[in-house]
Amino acid sequence: MLIAVSIDELDVLSLSLGQQAELYLDALPATSFTATVTKIDPEGENSGGNTKYSVTLALDRTARMYPGMNGTVCFPRAQRQKVPAVPLAALEEDGGRIVIYTAYDPETDRLLSPVEVKTGLSDGTDVEILSGLSIGDVYCYRYADSISYMTEQ
After folding, report:
1. Tell me: the pLDDT tens digits for 108-121?
2. How confident is the model over 48-83, as pLDDT tens digits?
3. Which of 9, 41, 85, 116 can bridge 126 by disulfide, Cβ–Cβ 3.0-4.6 Å?
4. CA-angle at 87, arms to 82 and 94, nearest 5°
5. What is the CB neighbour count within 10 angstroms for residue 119?
6. Extended beta strands in the chain, E state
7. Is-contact 126 83, C-beta < 8 A?
8. Cβ neighbours, 10 Å, residue 81
9. Cα–Cα nearest to 139, from 82, 95, 79, 92
């Protein structure tokens, strides 16, 4: 059985031929079927400034499936191996590079040993570090809600 779905231009590049997807038919709740991408039409249709592409999936037909049934196709998201995440405040820009400091000298009160990192996804508070820092590595940064200085009299 073949199923054609319309995929938004922002998502179509994440699909590939042979990719697996799960199909859920409205008429058969709580039942999923595995489908495989067999065609990605390179010619999209633009409607109102948004282009959609036709993607064809194939799956084995069961006796309970009928042409014209409505359903939902779920494509798995790309999964990453575990990567470290650090607070955005720990990153600094240095000459066009993004760095994180891996040492601190308390005698001079200086951050030391900048390491260039490549960042990934961010939730606005924390950011993934794709390269330059490994899980468990030490990093240092300045952060304080408030600082107060006291002088001795």
Report:
1. 888 999 999 999 87
2. 788 899 999 999 999 988 888 888 888 876 556 688
3. 85
4. 105
5. 17
6. 2-8, 20-25, 32-40, 45-47, 50-58, 71-74, 85-87, 92-94, 97-105, 110-116, 118-122, 126-131
7. no
8. 5
9. 92
